[in-house]
C-alpha cells in the first residue's frame, strides 16, 4: 500500500491523532513531554501527515505567518519513521504545500524558516539556492535581519543573534543518540561539517536558525526532480487558521 499524504488544519487534529503523533515523535527525540508537544502544535496552522495503511509514519507541523510584505513558513516538530528514511515522502508533501502557496501569490516573497538540531534537517536547505547559513558565503545583511527579527520575536532571549543558535534554558527535544550521528559516511560532506561547526552542541538540543528564500525557479526544478507524487496532498485543510 502506498504512503498516503494528507494536509490537515491543526483545528481538525483530534486528541487520538495528537497521541499517535507524540508516540512517533518521542521515539526519535528525548527530553520531550506530551504537554509541551501539544502546546507547540496548538501554535501552528497545518500538519502534513504521512500514513501507511492505518499506521502514522511521519509528519511535520507548519506555521504560516505574514511579516511585512513577505510570508514566512516555519517548520515545527518533524519526524519520519526510520523505515521510510530516504523515500522523500515528507519532502514531496512539503513541496506540494509550498508550490500551491507560492502559485497563489507568485509575487509575494516567501521564506522558509527552519530550525536545525540535526544535520539531516539542515541538508534540506540544499533544495533552495538562496539558503543560509552556508559554508559558501556569509549571510546577506537583509536575510540576517529577517532571521534576527523572526527568531528573536518567537524565542526571545533563547535566540542568540551572535551565533544564530536557539538555546533553551531546559532541553526541549534533542535527537536520540545515534539517530543523527554525523560521525558516519555523511561526515565526509562539507555541508555536514559546516553544520557541526556552527552547531557543535546539537546533540544537546541546540538549534541552528536557518532561512531559505522560496523562488519559482527553485520550485520548478524541485518539481522536476520529484516528478512522482507531485499531484498534491490528499484531503483538504481549512484555510481560516491564518490568512496570508
Name the CATH homologous superfamily.
Gcn5-related N-acetyltransferase (GNAT)
The N- and C-terminal alpha carbons lie at a distance of 36 Å
Sheet with the most strands?
9 strands, mixed
CATH architecture: 3-Layer(aba) Sandwich
Overall helicity? 25-40%
Mean pLDDT reading? 85
Give the CA-based shape. Answer: globular
CATH class: Alpha Beta
Report the sheet-strand fraction. Answer: 25-35%
How many structural domains are formed by the residues?
Answer: 1
Instruction: Please tell me how large the radius of gyration is.
Output: 17 Å
Would you give the CATH topology?
Aminopeptidase
Number of distinct beta strands: 11
Total helices: the number is: 7
Q: What class do helices, strands and sheet pairing give?
A: alpha+beta
Low-confidence stretches: 228-232, 234-244
What is the H/E order?
Answer: EHEHEEEHEHEHEEEHEH
Q: What oligomeric state do the depicted chains represent? A: single chain
Amino acid at each position: 500500500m502506498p504512503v498516503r499524504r494528507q494536509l490537515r488544519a491543526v483545528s481538525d487534529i483530534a486528541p487520538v491523532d495528537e497521541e499517535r503523533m507524540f508516540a512517533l515523535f518521542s521515539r526519535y527525540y528525548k527530553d520531550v513531554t506530551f504537554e509541551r508537544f501539544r502546546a507547540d502544535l496548538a501554535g501552528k496552522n497545518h500538519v502534513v501527515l504521512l500514513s501507511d495503511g492505518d499506521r502514522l509514519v511521519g509528519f511535520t507541523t507548519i506555521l504560516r505567518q505574514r511579516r511585512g510584505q513577505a510570508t514566512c513558513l516555519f517548520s515545527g516538530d518533524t519526524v519520519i519513521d526510520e523505515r521510510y528514511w530516504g523515500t522523500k515522502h515528507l519532502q514531496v508533501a512539503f513541496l506540494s504545500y509550498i508550490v500551491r502557496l507560492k502559485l497563489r501569490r507568485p509575487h509575494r516573497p516567501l521564506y522558509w524558516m527552519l530550525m536545525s538540531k540535526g544535520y539531516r534537517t539542515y541538508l534540506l536547505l540544499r533544495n533552495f539556492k538562496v539558503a543560509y547559513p552556508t559554508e559558501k558565503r556569509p549571510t546577506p545583511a537583509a536575510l540576517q535581519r529577517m532571521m534576527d527579527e523572526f527568531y528573536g520575536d518567537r524565542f526571545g532571549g533563547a535566540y542568540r543573534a551572535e551565533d544564530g543558535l536557539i538555546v533553551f534554558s531546559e532541553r526541549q527535544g534533542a535527537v536520540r543518540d545515534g539517530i543523527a550521528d554525523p560521525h558516519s559516511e555523511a561526515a565526509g560532506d562539507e555541508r555536514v561539517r559546516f553544520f557541526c561547526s556552527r552547531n557543535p552542541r546539537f546533540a544537546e538540543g541546540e538549534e541552528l536558525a536557518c532561512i531559505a528564500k522560496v523562488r519559482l525557479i527553485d520550485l520548478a526544478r524541485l518539481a522536476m526532480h520529484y516528478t512522482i507524487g507531485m499531484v498534491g496532498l490528499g484531503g483538504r485543510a481549512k484555510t481560516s487558521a491564518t490568512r496570508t
